[in-house]
Prior knowledge:
Oxidized Rhodanese, domain 1; 2 domains; seven-stranded mixed β-sheet
Amino acid sequence: MSETEAALDDPTxxxxxxxxxRLRAGDELTVLDVRDRDEFDRWHIEGExxxxxxxxxxxxxxxxxxxxxxxxxxxxxxxxxxxxGRGEASDHAVDLLRDAGIDAxxxxxxxxxxADLYVARELEVDLGLDHESDSAATVVQYDRxxxxxxxxxxxxxxxxxxxxxxRAFADRYAEDVAYRNAELKYAVDTHVHADHVSGVRALESRxxxxxxxxxxxRDRGLAFDAMTFEDGDELHVGDATLTAVATxxxxxxxxxxxxxxxxxxxxxxxxxxxxxPDLERGDEGAPAAARQFYETLEDTLSELPAExxxxxGHYSDAADPRDSDGTYAAVLGDLRxxxxxxxxxxxxxxxxxxxxxxxxxxxxERIVAANLGRVDVDAETAFELELGxxxxxxxx
Length: 396
């Protein structure tokens, strides 16, 4: 029996999928993390309606001996979801809390199962394609709640492409494509990612897919064979056409891909802001990248129809999924109206995106080197490198 199945049968546990849905719905709850402080500081579960609290498991062991379990959580609001690395220490804490009459559940499988959670949903959009055969194209959005990473699979006829795949889930994409009786033709990266290990080479080795990266990745030291794309180049997937659109700023080589009235924007444009400009060239190069980014917003994105659906590469805790299908996407016209970045003058924009930044993604330099093929990392190391928030966005 899987951890999820066990959680469904046990009221003391909560499945990762159920927790994700509660977070998406904005349910108020306390996440009690019983790992050590350094583990908590590195990465923990967050959400707009979540109070994340760290109390190490050792304190529950001590409290069990003294009978003071309730004293540990006097100030915490119920319900409580307890977490640890694998769900064992937190299970013990939940037993103590429930014996004391506290509404508490244990996250089945712990943070390991949270990192493994990957949800696929069809993106319900009118692609606005010209040809009747194109209108049959299907877009699937893959959501990793633990990091907010989004990946896309495009199906047309008996062919498929995957945009911004994660290495950790390469087998999942291949299995899903096979389930739909399709052939994976392309594994596409919109840019050289700094927050997660890319799956384009893993998919190329597992399937007959061709790895596709921006031409500008060569200037950054690309060290593996791949098909490279520039602005205006086209990928044909069945009867559908993906067109590359140069959108530099987050990185110099960033491309977005347009499919009819949908733009897969990578880390250029999010639902809550824009990509940060400092991950490629550091603080010194950030202002120049920001000015390039401003041109992308003012020139390239301003030329797109307001009804264009933006399908981003990430979302944050502040993003609201669309009510109709639960996916993360938004209409460009709405983003222009509500994001401050679109209303700023150039100097104001540069100051905003170079000064208002979260910490850089953990291990970003090693991840970039791995994604360029300059260093090799095994699957376990790759998984560890990318744990935690992506931190690729500047809000607003």
